[in-house]
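Q: Here's a chain of 125 amino acids. Please give me its 3D structure as tokens.
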Amino acid sequence: MIKKLAETEVEIAPLISERWSPRVFDPEFIINEVSVKSILEAARWAPSCFGDQPWKFIIFQKKDALQWVNALNCLSVGNQNWAMDTSLLIAFVRIKNLSIMAMKINGPSMILEQHPKIFVFNQHI
């Protein structure tokens, strides 16, 4: 695995400084179910306003060819070029309305926009 460090003006946590966005993936790598569940469990425990977790995840695995191609086609051509070598795509969909508790505290103007985003996970070279 390639290790890159962010060039920062002041020292930051290694978890952040070592983060980078790869664009080359091993097309032969297939992510295992335990890793997929681990990614989703981490997302489930992510903090959110009022504990709402206003998101849903849609999983697309390369082994399900039709759904995989449909998800891949949602990406721009530039992103398709590198994402097609990944073994997993995750669509992140944010829920539009917050809970009743959030509405009571902040009023009815507290509305979120729906904003789907697709993430890719795979072994990078």
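Q: Can you summarize the key feature?
A: Residues 33-44 form the longest helix (12 residues).
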